[in-house]
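Hi P.,

Sorry for the delay on this. The queue was packed all week, but I finally got your sequence through. Input first:
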Amino acid sequence: MLQSKLFTKTTKNLPEGETTKNAQFLIKGGFINKSSAGVYTMLPMGLKVLDKINKIIREEMNAIGGEEVLMPALVHKKYWEQSNRWDVDVIYKTSTGEKGKDFEYGLGWTHEEVITAIAKHFIQSYKDLPKAVYQIQTKFRAEPRAQAGLLRGREFMMKDLYSFHMDRADLDKYYQKAISAYNKIFKRLSLKTLVAEASGGAFTKEYTHEFQVLNPAGEDSVYYCDKCDFCQNQEIFNSSNHKDCAGEIKNSKAIEVGNVFKLGTKFSDAYGLYYTDKDGVKRPVIMGSYGIGPTRAMGAIVEVFNDEKGIIWPEAVSPFKVHLLALSDSGKVKSEADKVYKMLVGQIGETEVLYDERSASAGEKFNDADLLGIPLRLVVSEKTVSVKKVELRKRSEKSAKLISIADLKNLLK
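Then the structure:
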């Protein structure tokens, strides 16, 4: 991809009120655009990052038997009323007139109601269980304090997985499998997470589990042990629950990037979702719900991986693998840079190479490269051409080195 052809450009200007690193760097770098408080457009490079995050999520959800669906974002009032959640204050509500009648809807902030109603069509017998389906979809919440860039939005992306089981033992088994899958996802995203106990809120009366990234930009506060797995959200923290460990309890701000819930029969009872067991007895389906915020994870990655100059993308989610810079418009430099670009495209594909061939100063190109944060930077200059090499520098490192084209090919294999 030629940098001169990008739809976006870097900028030094920021919308009012954007104080977090993820908002500042993503807006300045041209990854996202702020439409209104808590509402952002994913621009081409931002969408590339988000697609890579979602690809990792899909792979791990498929690995534990999840089947992907896509439910409507516009949810009729009748669904919310059946579970007594129409009056929950996180729902955006709207009405439409049709042939003289008013129809009321809520913009989906979660989809337990919809998926339970759907499951009634397909789950009748014990032979139909267990099942698991997930979606990656836009969600809406009437957030009164939309702030912190992608960390707290009114419109955002969510991966929600729902599982259906015959009994509690089967749910417990799948619940642990989902936790394991989440740990794999966050490891692949280079996010170090703690699994924290938390309250169920509007979902369940049981304890739930949150996946928390320790970071000062977070709005949650967690207490955790520096030696064992003990971790609780501040809202339920009780030091007496920390037993048989000499480790120190510490407190930190944290970003919640995922959560899992044992729903039990809350929604199956409300919707009459029953199955017939081997003895012909009707029993309620036991359910679980599991969420990850891909856009919030994207914001969290930027909060964790940055320096004073910009983003430092982990390779797995970077919009490009390589950023090639031509530092001169002279014939020799441009010709050599074009050859390197052609080689890179042939080896790793055009979608993974960003080539800065613009007529701009070296300083501007370096500043933009630091801001965009692509993991591997290659520089072609008068100096490198004279020794028939290219300059290589990792975004996460301070030093650079000269490397031959042959060694570069081997490095990119």
